[in-house]
Design goal:
Order of helices and strands: EHEHHEHEHEHEHH
Shape: globular
Strand order of the largest sheet: 3-2-1-4-5-6
Number of strands: 6
Radius of gyration: 18 Å
Mean pLDDT: 91
Largest sheet: 6 strands, parallel
Helix content: 25-40%
Length: 200
């Protein structure tokens, strides 16, 4: 099972100003989050952000905020509890002009875009907001791909415990480069050069 850019969305969780100085390997984690968001933008993958209690913990850095379509301010640890799921899976519009009793082959084709049900997620702290958001997404029947080298916690032990739990719950554990190369699919992709220079 490989990621497909056309079926993916990227969620960046809580890379906030007052939280990051306490985070294990923060500069590397932040750099990978920015790379993911830049790759997503080049490949037209929607990017969403969350911020935990931003009045206390500050906002996400400008280079992440500017790449997000929208940023959810939240007090719950899970973004799904505060409406992230509605952003990722907008309500279906009722089909216009179709008689539901008609056989499928007589109904007008649906113009609704393909659902983007593969959620690539990264953030801090891995064992709190990232994990709770990811577990709720799995519960809501999204495919969840956790980008391990763009996630962290204040301690390595908490981060690793989160990865173990998420893998056990059915999330796929991946790295930034895995995501980028799976989204590309081929060295012939028109964005290959731009993305290759991004991760070199």
């Amino acid at each position: 099972m490989l990621l497909d850019a056309e079926l993916s969305q990227l969620v960046l969780v809580d890379y906030q100003a007052r939280l990051m100085p306490a985070i294990f390997e923060a500069p590397l984690v932040l750099a990978n989050a920015v790379r993911l968001a830049q790759a997503a933008k080049l490949l037209q993958v929607p990017v969403w952000g969350t911020e935990q209690n931003p009045s206390k913990l500050g906002q996400n850095p400008p280079d992440i905020r500017s790449l997000c379509q929208n940023t959810l301010a939240k007090m719950q640890f899970s973004g799904v509890e505060e409406g992230l799921g509605e952003w990722l899976r907008p309500p279906m519009k009722a089909p216009a002009g179709n008689a539901r009793s008609l056989p499928k082959h007589l109904q007008k084709p649906s113009n609704t875009p393909t659902e983007r049900s593969s959620i690539v997620i990264a953030g801090c702290e891995a064992h709190v907001c990232l994990m709770q958001t990811a577990l709720h997404l799995l519960e809501d029947e999204f495919e969840v791909w956790v980008v391990t080298d763009a996630c962290s916690s204040r301690t390595e032990r908490n981060r690793d415990a989160a990865f173990d739990r998420l893998a056990g719950a059915g999330a796929e554990l991946v790295t930034t480069e895995m995501v980028v190369f799976e989204w590309l699919g081929s060295a012939e992709h028109p964005q290959f050069k731009a993305l290759h220079s991004l991760i070199k």
